[in-house]
Structure formats: structure tokens, C-alpha cells
Amino acid sequence: MKRINSILNTFLKTKKGIQNTAGNLKTGSKICLALVASFLFVITACDEEAYLDKKPHTPTDASFYTSESGAVQGINAAYDVLQLGENYERAEFAGTVCSGDAMTGGEPGGGDQPFLQEMMKFSTVATNPYCINMWNWMYRGIYRCNLVIYYISEPVEGFNEDLRKRVLGEAYFLRGFFHFVLQRNFGGEPQLQQDFDGELKGVPFIDHVLLQEEWNQERPELSYTWERIEEDFIKAAELLPRQHDAANIGRATWGAAKAYLAKTYLYEEKWQEAYDAAKEVINSNVYYLIGENSHNDPLIVTRLGKNGTFETQMPPYKWIWQPEANNCAESIFDIQHMQTGLSTFPEGQEGNLIPRYYGPRGVYAWTINVTTKEHEYTEQDYFWGFILPTKYFRETAYHDIGCFADGQIKDPRYKLSVVTPEDKVPFYYDNEELRATYPDSVFVSPYYNHPATGYVTWKYFTDPIFNNIRGSLGDMPQNTKMFRFADLLLMGAEAAVHIGNTSDALTWINRVRERARNSGNTGYPQALSSVTLENIYAERRVELAFEGHQYWDLVRTRRAQQVLTAALNYQFTECPKGQVQEQFGDAFQKGKHELWPIPEAEIANTNGSVTQNPGY
Question: Rounded to an integer, what distance in angstroms lies between the CA atom of residue 411 and that of residue 203?
Fold first, then answer.
């Protein structure tokens, strides 16, 4: 604690200029988090092993957090947890690879990211770093939120009241979000109790900075944690504005809090409450789908080709994954990123690392032989090649939504989500001779990173106009889209069907299909005339493909074993480099793999008061 006091005192004495301007920490229209993260990380990371075991704060903290600039820096530090591509954002890949819709991929040989491979193969253990990082960083974020809430939960003299309420609302929202992620991954939903013999417990809900005698937390009843998450989102919605000014775009809003409240209710199968919360946001007219009939203006972007920059029009479903769509009208909650040109990697930067993971591992492109000076057509490294769409996904997902006809997938979202071996991707030759000679798009090398499926993900692909000026591997400008309006429409439709309101359900699912139809010229997907839960499940799978939702949808609806078993019909495929195992559902154990194991170190750090999940 002496070290913390020393750091704080030094900071407050020598960095007053930073503190005076912290309320305005931003670049352009983005909230800027790097500065405060580098400072507050030191303050909050003194105990690296147990993130439930946080020491009480000190009197010095009061002068920092009760100032407007200090409180803003404090909440920025909580947001910063979400930006950590290597510690948080990539962990959401598990929601895709565990569903059977994509393989992990990575570098050639199949050994890249072994711990994500472990999750895909349902062999996760309690020392898996993905589990450890998720647990540690979510609780670190909760700790940062609790510091803010403690100091500004009541009016503070000299502190603008509107700003105080906004920051407090952001703290409640983020605390609810962090607990939601923990509960989904480690705690489970009430309807799963029947598969776990009633043994499920909630994750500890931490609503204050713990005193020493509180360090050994126990896991509460499952319903307790869910109810506390609800309370945080309700409080956040009461405090947050519907929209922010340009200087604060990207911060949590009323709509984000209400939407996550709806999602919380959905996970608990509180159908009426989920429907009511979703409908309130849907009818607020704050959000809409880019490209639906009433919002289908041309979308023009500037890109880089062999002859320099040029303007091109993009279909709506492709545009929403571009940097130009950061915080757009269908972004309910984005993780904020921007390109700064900084070379720090993998952390300490504002750019997004996820596009590096998603892009194709190898492409066929031209090079110049250094000896002969002749042009050679070769396989070359490009991005990292993770999240490879499987045959199971390609051959079932679009059939299930009625978009397979004449031997072809007719849904425009297919070619805007999946790169096939027949497709090209943008490419820019640094060498002037090659650039003048060859096209500025190249074929993907489909099996470059064998074992591979032959297909690559389009979402988050980074155009050369951004890739060429990055300062590091992760310096990409796209936001990570955590909650899109399409997700809310389909959640609302699901809840509506459960309460018998098929009229709203049909309207909302058809809005999603309308925007998809407007993203191409195939006439698909056609509007539905009636709607069932199966229609909604299938639509979610396609609309939200590779975004980390599908596995958790299977879990919460108790369809995981059924679907993963069916996927075994596509377990092995043949490619030019040999047989590939694409499906691992035969290793799935009902009543175990719906959850992640509690990190082994956390059980030890709490002297066993935090208990392990069944089966691990």
C-alpha cells in the first residue's frame, strides 16, 4: 500500500497538467484510454494473482476520484480492460470455434494458439490461459468500477452533476457487463441446472472494494448473481444519456444498458421482461440497420489500389465492418479502437488486434527473385488466418434460412462473411514494378495454414489503406462490435415468440432479412410470412456468424449436445494436403462443457472458498 500511495502522490504532484485535461481525453471523436491505462494499471495491478483479493483503497484516492478529471480517468481505465486484444477480445473467439461453425486456424501445422485449440476440442482445463485471463481481467475491471462508484455515488462539491451521473452510469454499466461475461462463461443460466443436477453456483458479485476479511469470497446462488447484474444495468439506464456528444462517442448509453438488460433477461428465460426491454430500445428510434429500406443510401468509402486512392461503393452488410462504421447507427456497444501509428504490441495501444487474427494467413502474389530478378508467383504471408468457416457451416447455415437455391447459396451475407477459394482480396504491392504490372487483388491460398478448411472470414478484414500505415501488428482502426442492433432485433423476436407475440417477432426478423437482401441483388433472403423459434435461431447463426455468439446461443437454449452431435456428419474433410478434422462434438460432455472451469489459481488464492464447476 505504501507503493500505491507513493505512486499516487507523485502523480498528483507532478502530473497536474494531465489531471486537469483528463476530462477531455480523446482523439477526434474517440475516447482515448492509453494514458490513463498506463497509470491506473500500476495502481490496480499490485496483486497480480488474485483479482478478488483487492486491498482497500487509501485516503489519497479520494482527492483523485472526487475530481472530475480523476473520475473520468478512473472510468476510462475500466473501459481499457475491453481493449486488450490478447487478454479479452480474442477470448470471445471461443463462442465461434466451440460451435462447430469455424476451426481455430492460425499458423501452418495446427499448433497455433494451443489453448484456443483446447477449447475447440472440449479439452479445456483449469490452467487454460484464456480462462485465467477472462476471469482476472473481468474482475480487474470490476475493481476499477467499484472505485469510481464508491467515490462519486453521492453528489460531490464542485463536481458537475450531469457529468457525475454519466460517469456513475458508465461504472454501473461496465460492472454489469463484466459480471455478465463472467456469469455466462463460468456461472451458467438457471435453465442449465437440470443438466448439472442443480449444482450450479453464480460467480461472486463484487459491489465494493474488498476488505481483507472479505477476500475469501464464496460463490452465491445462481439467481443472486443474475439479479445483481440486472440491478446494475437498470441503474445504468437510469443515469446514462440516450446519445453522447461528439467528444464522448463510444461511451455506454441508455440504449446499451437497456439492451444488455434485455440480454440478461433472455439468458435467464424471463421472456416478458426481455421482450419489454428489447422493444423499448427498438422503438426508441435511436438505432437502425444500415441498409434496411428506410436507411439504404449509397455507402461510399475511400480505398487504396495500384493507382492510388479511389472511391468505391460498399453493400451495407460489408460496410458495417469497416472503420467508417465505428459507432454507426446499429452499434449499440462497440469496443473502441483507432489507428495511431504507434508500434507498441500487443498491449498499450489504441488499435485493434482482432483484424490481424481474422485475415487470411496466406495469399498467392508476385515477388521478384533477388538472384534472377524474374517475377515469381508464390504463396506469401498476409494476416494470421484464424476462424476458418467449416463445411458444416457452409452446407447447413444458409439452407436453414431458406437461402439455398439452384445449387447455390443466395444470401448476400455469405460472400460478405466468407472468402471462398474463388474469391480475391485487396492487396497492395510495395514494389513499384510489381504494382504497375499486376492487379491489386489476389487469391487467398486456401490451405496455406493446413490443417485448414479452405475458407477464410471476411468480417474485420483490413484494407491496404489501413494495413499499410499501421504502426504495429495490432494497430487496426476497426472497433470490435460487441452488440449490434441486429442482435437486439433477433433477441426481441425470440422473446416475442415465447410470449405469443408473433407479430412483433415477424416484423423484427424481417428487418434483419431486408437489410441482408439489400446487400446484394439475389432477391434473398425473402421475407418470412410466419416465424418460429427455429427460424430465429437459424437467422442468428447467419447474421451473427463468427462474432462469438453461436456457441453461447446453443448453450443457453440447451441445444449444444444436439447440434454438436449433428455436426459430426461433417467431422472430417479432405483437402489437397490431407484429411482435416473440422468437428469435435464427440468430445462434448453435457453437464460440463457448457461452462469454463474456474481458474485453478483462483481456487487456491481464496483457500477453496471459490469452488470449481462440476466436471472439472
Answer: 40
For residues 286 and 308, give the distance between their C-alpha atoms in angstroms, rounded to a whole number.
Answer: 37
| H-helix or E-strand spanning residue 231 | helix 222-239
Cα distances (Å, whole numbers) of residue 139 to 209, 236, 237? 11, 19, 22
Q: What is the mean pLDDT of residues 135-156?
A: 97
234 φ/ψ sector (left φ>0, alpha ψ -120 to 50, else beta):
alpha
The domain made up of 2-240+595-605 is a member of CATH 3.40.50.2000: no
Measure the CA–CA gap between 310 and 583, rounded to whole angstroms: 42
- CA–CA gap between residue 254 and residue 262 (Å, rounded): 12
> Would you call the peptide bond into 614 cis, given omega within 30 degrees of 0 as the criterion?
no
Compute the distance between CA of residue 85 and CA of residue 92 in angstroms, rounded to an integer. Answer: 10
DSSP symbol at 320: T
Measure CA 326 to chain center: 14
pLDDT in tens, 401-436: 999 999 999 999 999 999 999 999 999 999 999 999
Cα–Cα distance measured from residue 422 to residue 439, given in angstroms and rounded to the nearest whole number: 16
* 88 torsion bin: left (phi>0), alpha (psi -120 to 50), beta (else): alpha
Domain ranges, ordered by start, for the chain: 2-240+595-605, 299-390+422-482
Nearest to 274 by CA among 264, 262, 283: 262
Instruction: Give dist(CA 139, CA 339) in Å, integer.
Output: 28
Q: What cell was used for 501?
A: 407475440
Task: Name the H helices within 45-109.
Answer: 59-65, 68-80, 94-97
Whole-prediction pTM value?
0.91
Predicted confidence band of residue 36 (pLDDT cuts 50, 70, 90)? very low
pLDDT digits (tens, 9 = 90+) for 104-129: 999 999 999 999 999 999 999 999 99
Rounded Cα distance between 264 and 276, Å, is 12
In 249-330, beta strands by DSSP E:
299-305, 308-314
